[in-house]
UniProtKB/TrEMBL annotation:
PANTHER family: HIGH-AFFINITY BRANCHED-CHAIN AMINO ACID TRANSPORT SYSTEM PERMEASE (PTHR30482), HIGH-AFFINITY BRANCHED-CHAIN AMINO ACID TRANSPORT SYSTEM PERMEASE PROTEIN LIVM (PTHR30482:SF20). The lineage of its organism: Bacteria, Bacillati, Actinomycetota, Actinomycetes, Mycobacteriales. This is Branched-chain amino acid ABC transporter permease. Signal peptide: none annotated. Residues 10-20 have a biased composition (Polar residues). Keywords: Cell membrane, Membrane, Transmembrane, Transmembrane helix. Residues 1-27 are annotated as: Disordered. It is a multi-pass membrane protein. GO terms for molecular function: branched-chain amino acid transmembrane transporter activity. It holds the Pfam family BPD_transp_2. It comes from Nocardia jinanensis.
Amino acid sequence: MSDMGIRNSGMASNPASPTSDRVAAGASGTRPRRIGASWIAAAVLLVAACWAPFELAPFHTFQLSLAMVYAVALLGLNLLVGHTGQISLGHGAFFAVGAYTAAVMMDRWDTPYPLTLPVAAVVAFVLGIGLGIPALRLRGLYLALVTLAIAIFLVPLLKRFESVTGGSMGLTLDKPRPPAWSGLAEDQWLYFLALAVTVVSYLLVAGLLRSRVGRALHAVRDNEIAAEVTGVRPAFYKTLAFAWGAMFAGAAGCVYIWVIGYVSPDSFTLTLSITLLAGLVVGGLGGQWGPLLGGLFVMYVPSFAQDVNQAAPGVIFGLLIIAVMYLAPNGLAGLVGRAAHWLGFRVRKGRTHAH
């Protein structure tokens, strides 16, 4: 599909149409200001993230590292669910593929840990294509059931090949050690590795979504038939979305191994896939901040539920999800956006009264 075909699909010819108004607003500077505010917020958040490991206790630094790992995995799931409109209950399986790829390379072949990241991402990408092509004929609940089956049979499969995966006992690995020149403790070094992968992943996804490919993904999500009429190939882009989602999950699984230093099949049960999907929905589908907020949710809320009630943490976890969905139907990102809009309105109103 041509670039103009995607941009112009659905655009009314009436110059006074809402679409024209949005274009005019962008030309007058509204969109650049919004993008500028977003970049400022990202820069402030990055500075705070760089400062955090020097002020936090090692365990809290470890928790934030894991939250960023989950955020990278949710970036991939957001591409598939939030931006392409597909449903996946097997994202944890690709997370496990990346983790075991890195673990086997480090344990069996003594591969330097930086080299495991691209390999884990590529292996998950290829597997995503292999599983995405057969799933093209499926959608909705049928696709969800297929991806659910992937997550279910993965754990016994990993346990079966004990000579490679370590079976039920898993594999224990040496964590990446900080170089002498860095002057960092181990937890701080691992934190910055996770932060670097998170930042690069966010930049890659942002560039992808602003490209012609991103517009094609959104066209498939909004109306698959209309997208095909205008020249978009839904099968091609849905397969790519599946593969890209798997790739980011595989990269996240690799960094997970760096941070944890241990891998076992029981770490990647069906619960992980469901928790990741719940975290994305709670964080905010289709938004740029949704995966990050979802990663924080996946990391901290189960621990909070365990502290509240050790006998039934799942009940507390479920009730918290229901409460968040009731208070913020568009996710935490939508809630934060509305709060920021309200605060900006109050500030502008105060300036108006002052003058």
